[in-house]
TrEMBL record:
<feature type="transmembrane region" description="Helical">
    <location>
        <begin position="222"/>
        <end position="249"/>
    </location>
</feature>
<feature type="transmembrane region" description="Helical">
    <location>
        <begin position="387"/>
        <end position="409"/>
    </location>
</feature>
<feature type="transmembrane region" description="Helical">
    <location>
        <begin position="151"/>
        <end position="173"/>
    </location>
</feature>
<feature type="transmembrane region" description="Helical">
    <location>
        <begin position="179"/>
        <end position="201"/>
    </location>
</feature>
<keyword id="KW-1133">Transmembrane helix</keyword>
<dbReference type="Pfam" id="PF07690">
    <property type="entry name" value="MFS_1"/>
</dbReference>
<feature type="transmembrane region" description="Helical">
    <location>
        <begin position="292"/>
        <end position="310"/>
    </location>
</feature>
<feature type="transmembrane region" description="Helical">
    <location>
        <begin position="316"/>
        <end position="335"/>
    </location>
</feature>
<dbReference type="InterPro" id="IPR036259">
    <property type="entry name" value="MFS_trans_sf"/>
</dbReference>
<dbReference type="InterPro" id="IPR011701">
    <property type="entry name" value="MFS"/>
</dbReference>
<feature type="transmembrane region" description="Helical">
    <location>
        <begin position="261"/>
        <end position="280"/>
    </location>
</feature>
<protein>
    <recommendedName>
        <fullName>MFS transporter</fullName>
    </recommendedName>
</protein>
<feature type="transmembrane region" description="Helical">
    <location>
        <begin position="27"/>
        <end position="51"/>
    </location>
</feature>
<keyword id="KW-0813">Transport</keyword>
<feature type="transmembrane region" description="Helical">
    <location>
        <begin position="356"/>
        <end position="375"/>
    </location>
</feature>
<keyword id="KW-0472">Membrane</keyword>
<dbReference type="GO" id="GO:0005886">
    <property type="term" value="C:plasma membrane"/>
</dbReference>
Length: 432
């Protein structure tokens, strides 16, 4: 093999880790890449704009973001139902356009009430778009490819978001209202492009309206599935610890260099970009996803215990300890996301991926609403004991993980039963 062939093979190997094969999967990854660039620009620079230019306080900005999170959790199931009923492709494209409209309206926000409304609608379009997109991924890729593609999409999103955040840093340095607004216009344009790209994907048939049959599945009544979602959602406290808790702890309770907070996040980003697809290969079945979830909670508990050791030791030692903790937290994040995809898809009926995805998203409630306060105040106020309390939370999650998944598996409708239910629906549903 010549040197040029070896170089080309090496390049092909690198790209194969970041991109799926040509086809609908690669188009979905392209949508994710474009969206991540726009999202990274807005998230990093938008908050600064509303504080520096509009005159809001950081607390008011936080209220708007929290309101968006709560609304998205409430509306996730209805949007999932709409995706099933009217087709996930069109629903996802429409929500991308709604996000673009809200980004345009952000330029006209001049008061706190206007900001809360805009932020709530923008966040709702963003988060419920994830629910509809999950149903779209399942419909386009099928059981064999949806978990792996989700891993590709997350890997690319993290890389694009990181690059956009760096670019937004230059915008913040310029500190010009017109340049800040360019972030909004740029993100809005990106979402219009993404909406058009979604419509180029293969059509996913909509599900006909189904009469309520005795024994038929219903997402909002599926208690075992809901419990799996709640337990899985606890793993998302881990990334919150890494993004908020670790930097605050590093600055206020250790002698490690302050600049290391940014270096740790770089380590996290690179690990996600290059390892997420590899890790997700075992998460496309319920047993594999359940096993990964147990490893997730175990490594997150150990990571909390390791982070606790960084206080009261020399700066170089604290830096080393926090680096180890960051690797552990990132492994927990990667494993946890892969496990979530497997459980979210495999435990849901194929004809109701949208509404079940909306129900699964409710598992994020604790991580979204209470997570930031929990990871910043408990270690800060209680020190070593606070870190051990966080570790105990993950240990309890580990203990719950296996039983709730096994319960959900026992209560699933079998393939033949679901087929019989589908036949019954066809005989009672008029032609559209």
């Amino acid at each position: 093999m010549t040197d040029s062939e070896q170089i080309q093979r090496g390049r092909t190997s690198i790209w194969s880790k970041l991109l799926p094969d040509a086809g609908p999967g690669r188009l979905l990854v392209l949508c994710t890449a474009v969206a991540s660039l726009g999202n990274g620009l807005y998230v990093t620079g938008g908050a600064v704009y509303f504080v520096r230019v509009v005159g809001l306080s950081p607390g008011q900005v936080g209220i708007g973001l929290s309101t968006a999170g709560v609304m998205a959790l409430v509306l996730g199931v209805p949007v999932g139902f709409i995706a099933d009923r009217f087709g996930p492709r069109g629903t996802t494209a429409v929500l991308a356009l709604c996000k673009a409209m809200m980004l345009i309206s952000a330029a006209f926000v001049h008061s706190f009430p206007m900001y809360v409304v805009m932020a709530a609608l923008l966040g709702t379009a963003e988060q419920t778009g994830h629910v509809a997109r999950g149903a779209l991924v399942s419909g386009v890729m099928g059981r064999e490819g949806r978990v792996k593609l989700s891993a590709y999409m997350r890997s690319v999103f993290n890389g694009g978001f990181a690059l956009a955040s760096l670019a937004a840093g230059f915008v913040i340095a310029v500190d010009s209202p017109d340049v800040y607004l360019a972030l909004f216009w740029g993100n809005a344009a990106a979402m219009v492009v993404v909406s058009g790209l979604y419509m180029r994907l293969p059509h996913v048939p909509r599900q006909p309206k189904r009469p309520r049959l005795k024994g038929g599945p219903s997402a909002v009544r599926d208690v075992p599935y809901i419990l799996v979602a709640q337990v899985s959602g606890l793993a998302r406290i881990g990334p919150t610890v890494l993004a908020l808790g670790i930097p605050l702890w590093l600055v206020t309770h250790t002698d490690a260099p302050r600049a290391m907070a940014a270096w740790l996040m770089l380590v996290n980003t690179l690990m996600v970009v290059f390892l997420q697809v590899y890790v997700a290969r075992d998460a496309d079945t319920v047993p594999g996803a359940s096993r990964l979830q147990r490893w997730t909670f175990l490594v997150l508990a150990v990571a909390c215990a390791v982070a606790a050791l960084s206080g009261g030791i020399p700066g170089w030692a604290a830096a080393a300890v926090l680096a180890v903790a960051t690797v552990l937290f990132t492994l927990g994040e990667i494993w946890g996301e892969a496990a979530r995809w497997g459980l979210r898809y495999e435990l849901a009926p194929e004809h109701a991926q949208g509404q079940y995805g909306g129900v699964f998203a409710t598992g994020d409630a604790l991580a979204v609403i209470a997570g930031p306060v929990l990871v910043t105040t408990v270690p800060d106020r209680l020190g070593l004991v606070g870190w051990l309390l966080l570790a105990a939370l993950f240990v309890v999650s580990l203990a719950l993980s296996g039983p709730v998944v096994r319960w959900a598996v026992r209560t699933r409708v079998s393939g033949s039963e679901e087929s019989n239910l589908r036949d019954a629906v066809r005989t009672t549903t008029p032609r559209q």
